[in-house]
Amino acid sequence: MNGRFFNGKLNVEETQTIRFYEQQGLLPPPDRQDNGYRVYTEKHGEGLAFIRRCRILGLSLAEIHELQSYQDDPHQPCTAVNALLDDHISHVRSQITALQALEKQLVSLRASCNDDREVEACGVLAGISEGNMHQQ
Questions:
Q1: Which residues of 35-67 are buried (b: 16+ CB within 10 A; e: fewer)?
Q2: What does the alpha-carbon distance between residue 59 and residue 26 come to, in Å, rounded to a whole number?
Q3: What is the pTM of this model?
Q4: Which end of the chain is more exposed for a tag (fewer CB within 10 A), N or C?
Q5: Range 82-99 burial, b when 16+ CB lie within 10 A, else e
Q6: Rounded distance, CA 19 to CA 30, Å?
Q7: pLDDT tens digits along 48-92
């Protein structure tokens, strides 16, 4: 693989990730050399970095694709970008609420057993087996 961005060295995971993003339409397909090797450019590197940053923020592939479409038309107002992010923030807040409820369940389960018991009298296992947990 040529191009200054990869210096010809990619591990298997990176190659699979790049091809996956190409298949999803998030990265353009690279040109190919006469021998069939893919030629990645700096633009591919920038695109991959953008996708990785979006994934770190928990954005879905669909959200990333939408953001990329806004990048392709840079002279429009940021209203749609802000709306997308507002929706994502709302989703993250819902996840936090669900995780806090899960934490309470786990803490309650953990409190049902102490280290002095044997497994046959384990309050945690009994609580799980009996379904003494609230559904989220």
A1: eeebebbeebbebbebbeebeeeebeeebbeeb
A2: 13
A3: 0.75
A4: C
A5: eebeeebeeeeeeeeeee
A6: 10
A7: 999 999 999 999 999 999 999 999 999 999 999 999 999 999 999
